[in-house]
Amino acid sequence: MRPVAVAGVGLTKVSEHWEKGLKDLFTEAAYKAFEDAGTKEIDALYVANMGAPILQDQMHLGAMLADALGMRGVPALSVGAASASGGVAFHEGVKAVASGFADCVLVGGVEKMSDGLPEDVLSILAMAEDQEYTAYTGVTNTGLNALIHRNYMETYGATAEEIAMFAVRGHEHAVGSKHSQYPFKVAIDRVLSSPMEADPIHMLECAAVGDGAAALILMPAEQAPEGVEVAATSVATGPYYLAGRKDILTFDAVKTAAERAYKTAGVTPEEVDLVEVHDETTIAGVVSLEDLGFVEKGKGAAFVADGCTLRGGEVPTNTFGGLKARGHPLGATGLYQVGEVALQLQGRAGPCQVEGARVGLAESLGGLGSTCAVTILRRG
Amino acid sequence: MSVPRYWRETKYRYRLIGQMCAQCGSVMFPRSGVCSPCGSVDLEEVKLAETGHVVTWTVVRNPPAGYMEYAPYLVALVELDDGVRVLSQLVDIEPIKMKTGMRVEAAFRRVKVDGNSGIIEYGYKFRPLIE
Amino acid sequence: MKIDRGVGIVGYGAYIPMNRLRASEVKRVWGGSGTPIEEKSVVAMDEDTITIAVECARYAVKRAGIDPQEIGAVYVGTESKPYAVKPSGTVVAEAIGATPNVLAADYEFACKAGTEAFQTCIGLVSSGMMKYAMAIGADTAQGRPGDALEYTASCGGAAYIFGKKPARTLAEIEGSCSYVTDTPDFWRREHEMYPRHGNRFTGEPAYFKHVIGAAKELMGELGTEAGDYKYAVFHQPNVKFPIKAARTLGFSMDAIKPGLIVPFVGNTYSGSTPLGLAATLDIADPGDRILAVSYGSGAGSDAFSLTVQDAITNDRRLEPAVSRFVDRKRYIDYSVYSKLRGKIVK
Q1: How many domains does one find in chain B?
Q2: pLDDT of residue C315
Q3: Which of C116, C155, C235, C319 is catalytic?
Q4: Does one domain contain both A194 and A158?
Q5: Residue C174 appears among annotated catalytic residues
Q6: Does the first or last residue of chain A, that is N or C, have fewer Cβ atoms within 10 Å of its Cβ?
Q7: In what order do the strands lie in the sheet with A105-112?
Q8: How many domains does chain A have?
Q9: Of these residues, C25, C39, C79, C150, which one is catalytic?
Q10: In A, which residues are within 8 Å of B85 by CB distance?
Q11: What is the mean pLDDT of residues A298-326?
């Protein structure tokens, strides 16, 4: 297996892009990445998406987007792992380059959530779960997070405010970010006084609806001296049903994927300079930090509240705002995360820069932690 | 809504039927092709307990398509008295009266209705124990 | 219709939804003077006749302590079928685990559909065609907004499992009698949401003629009189009618009081007499005799004479009594009621 590097990054702003469709957004991100990498000679295309079959009545995104890019002939396919699609597509792209099957791969994620009605978006999010015994109850994705949230507070004595601080921190980090959906600060009082979405989770503790596309160019590391080395990618699945888990406060898939990634990269959590976690809700962010090994189980909320996840803190987390403030265009989210880590390690994060960052980690969740993709990037 | 999909699950949902592994004795719900703890495919149907307690719960205020008319509604993770955990709506109780650990029992309710002319899907929900 | 083969009730179960609409709420919205009852039961958004039937059927099976596979028939008597075409009984049979060797059908005879099914079940078990048969009376009745019936039309039901000796019966049935004529006092046409009725015509020529007719016929056939019965249950569309019927037949208030739940539940239509009988069985002692008379518009009455057996003392407290459901309540206002009963145009 040969070392692989991220050679180009292209991110569109996450927003409600009323005038742009799937193809417009994807093309925009892809051409930014081509420009960044200095090449558009790709020999494989991986597309990450979750909702197009429902939101746009569109399947077969590989061929459609290859054609839209003017790249008829390249092998192309879409990768689906719910909201972990981006992270999993990245893993597949890395495998193609590492194995020698491809020399230049475009991994792009795209989601156009604003095409759907709110209840349709909630249905799509719930499609990550079993339709017959989980989504069938009428529970939403936020509802499932709320079951964990309440149990976390009751088990560990964490306060609503401590957990909600995860959202406040994200917004703090997003200030100045060009591609983030909500690049402004939000006070803790505003989070806690926002309406309940699924008790005890407030609306401002949840990732909102946004459109976006993120594209990354992967090449053999030796051909991309300015690129960022992919130190490890890892994908793991965990128990699919929340009801089938003995411990609902641990995402087994995260632990498994993280263990494998740390081993492959030869790094420990202490050596990670920044992390992008899948905070679809504040509690998902807290549990992720714990299961990735950055803080002891049960102490994640206090860790966040104490400022340890701030840019200058122990574990700078969600440095462009995370899902809450950068935005969460489902299938594209995992690629935003990896792209952001690459920008940080290259010193191109602008006002969001974590000084001296050498190792960064991105964690992407599909379903309620039933799929996890962990990527570790390293530079110099 | 798919009628065969509903019909295929009726027995399990109507009567809370799970699966017991003949090798290791693990009980699973919903049924599966393989015992997840031990990997055995030697599985038999088993009736689950109809009473249990609430492990954790939430109130769904913005429901997905198909559930709008029931909102707001409670969803809970229920641990049955035989140790099996089931995700379910909770009915006949107000959110303000909810308590983690409270005793509940299986009820038979409408879960989804396909408009005015389509199928009515019935299944389990849980409610506070009626003694 | 005398029964000489030791047929009786081996199990029964009741269910009443917990929502209550005070009659004063209806009066507040629609005006009028006086209210016929205190309050009525209303289904939740996710309840209907089938869910009510399943709930009471489950309690009946538990109280009977029998293998549901031995139940050979499941009949649901109702005027509020969730499906115009598709039996409710199949869902109930599936839910209690009585399928597939089971007769299943829905009965309709306004408010006496449930007791009509009693008689079928008695015939099926006494003939030896099956060991046990189940009859359910359940409804989620609707009254036109502002109509007199809106005060009372309510939701609930009760299920009965019949068996023959040597099966352990909680109450033995000595006989039954039906009294039926073509009397159009109340009806609902196809595709109509609400029934229509003949106001005072529902009284003397309809309810009283048939209820008293059936009761007298049965007592005449069995050679009994009001004094032989500790308790009596009459169909209860309101509070006045059953009390007047009881007095006419010579029954005291004490005899009908245990089964008179209409003031706090309303008229559960096909569930009315079965629920009243269940509430009476809940408190009756072995040896007590009970007369139960239903009434269905259109019109007819089914009368039953029962004697409570020794088995009842231990069995009847295993499952919730009717009073438990009467007391289990949550008040709703007219706007929530309108949402729950589909009265809001969306």
Answers
A1: 1
A2: 67
A3: C235
A4: yes
A5: no
A6: C
A7: A76-79, A44-48, A105-112, A211-220, A4-11, A228-237, A371-378, A359-366, A274-276
A8: 2
A9: C79
A10: 243-245
A11: 98
